Amino acid sequence: MAIVFIPTLLQSLTGGRASVEAGGATVREVIENLERSWPGIRDRLLEQDRLRPNISIAVDGEVTPMGLLEAVGANSEVHFVAAIKGGLAALLPWNSRP
Questions:
Q1: Is the whole model's pTM more than 0.85, yes or no?
Q2: Residue 75 contacts by C-beta under 8 Å, 6 or more apart in sequence?
Q3: Structural domain count of the chain
Q4: Closest to 68 measured CA to CA, from 17, 40, 34
Q5: Is 41 exposed, middle or buried (0-12, 13-18, 19+ CB in 10 A)?
Q6: Are 28 and 35 in contact (CB under 8 A)?
Q7: Residue 33 contacts by C-beta under 8 Å, 6 or more apart in sequence?
């Protein structure tokens, strides 16, 4: 089973656990299995059956563009990460500050 790292804000749903084990061949299946063990977690991760826009997924250390379709191995590590916006504007020359 994959090890799933639970964000601090969702740990109240997992009894305070920072990581749990969950089976599944894809991120979607992992979330469904998490929901069976920890009711309510799916609603905090998904919105209308899609990943919430403020959440990114990393599987085995790589942030995935595949989202819920990303493959998960039996020994994978899955992280749900709060998406961070911004950054590019600070790199543009007209946004530089002396």
A1: no
A2: 2
A3: 1
A4: 34
A5: buried
A6: no
A7: 22, 23, 24
Task: Report the share of the chain in percent with pLDDT over 70.
Answer: 84
CA distances from residue 4 to 18, 75, 85 in whole angstroms, order as listed: 8, 10, 24
Which residue range(s) make up the domain with 38?
A: 2-95
49 backbone dihedrals φ, ψ, rounded to 5°: 65, 20
In the structure encoding, which two tokens stand for residue 24, read together?
Answer: 């599944």
Phi, psi of 68 (to 5 degrees): -65, -20
What secondary structure letter does DSSP report for 91? H
What pLDDT shows up at residue 24?
97
Instruction: Give the CATH number for residue 85.
Output: 3.10.20.30
Give the alpha-carbon dihedral of 8, 88, 65, 9, to 10 degrees: 10
Residue 63 in contact with residue 29, Cβ under 8 Å?
no
The pair of three-digit structure tokens given for residue 25, joined into one six-digit string: 């061949």
